[in-house]
UniProtKB/TrEMBL annotation:
Domain Thiolase C-terminal positions: 234-376
Source organism phylogeny: Bacteria, Bacillati, Actinomycetota, Actinomycetes, Pseudonocardiales
PANTHER family, sorted: ACETYL-COA C-ACETYLTRANSFERASE, NON-SPECIFIC LIPID-TRANSFER PROTEIN-LIKE 2
Pfam families xref list: Thiolase_C_1
Gene3D superfamilies: 3.40.47.10
Protein name: Thiolase
Amino acid sequence: MSPRGTTAVVGVAESDLGEVPGMSPLDLAGQAAVRALADAGIPKSEVDGLFTASSYYPMSGMDTAEYLGIRPSYVDGSTIGGSSFVSHLLHAAAAIGAGLCTTALIVYGSTQRSDGGRLVSPSKPNPYEAPYRPRYPISMYALAAARHMHEFGTTREQLADVAVAARQWARLNPAAFAREPLTRQDVLSSRMISDPLTALDCCLVTDGGGAVVVTGADRARRSPGRPVFLLGAGEATSHRSISAMPDLTTTAAVDSGARAFRMAGLRPSDVDVVELYDAFTINPVLFLEDLGFCAKGEGGGFVADGRIAPGGALPVNTNGGGLSYCHPGMYGIFSIIEAVRQLRGECGPRQVDGAEVALAHGNGGVLSSQVTALFGTEGTL
């Protein structure tokens, strides 16, 4: 049985974002959870499904349940990088459909900025890549960007336009960490980190947490807010190390997107707003191609000259994305939060008029795991 429309998001929230000294990752996860449950109008005592992932806590499900003071009947601590939380949506829908839980909390917290910007990772260096001394993970994304430029003629200017568009959206979002004006030239002239990516081609490093509350569709309709329904989701993985990626210009989003669209019974042309994991400026270029918004090789032209910025042809990363809004180590949960808020009509100056269908896409590892989710309002069912 397809989970299309059987579950809905009824609450979303972030913790305090940016630089939040004196807090632990669990403090921020807890802060976001309390806010999301308040948004849903659901008491903590009714949470019987917990979905979480962490770079800090290897047994994140138990650590988080203990901190929150809950004893869920279903726990999923699957970790596939920054896409984990979009994956958890599909897992939560399956668990609710199977009667394993009724109210699922998806939650995350990180203090990466307060920790000095260090990327916390339990992974050991790849012995086949380590001799080349890559800067993990940026060198891996730079490799994909360089290949895309070589194969399709994508330019640094086009990549810079991704960062500029994200900043233009962030300037409409009071919660965004970086809101000062940004030009294409600013991006091109910023410090080179890993050729061809400069400092402003790279995501932020912030503290922050997020939480999403999911429940069955019938109960969601009785919630105090406007429910947003999960129409489709798909996940896929193609490799772990960049040296094992089958094609540096094509990600497993080809598969995850196809599965999500098939479940939802939709096409890319039906999507009103797109929230993508933009760890680096090459990411939206690749994902827009692989998800079917443009043909392979045309992503550079698709994102250029304000086409994904406010007022452009396709609203992409309307909160400012990982490039300008926040990026506390794993970004995927924030793509869900923004997609839901857009469909609720809660985004103020950055609101996309008439948005009925939203896509959230998570990326994990080094273009390794890809998870796509499609959401809709009641009218899309």
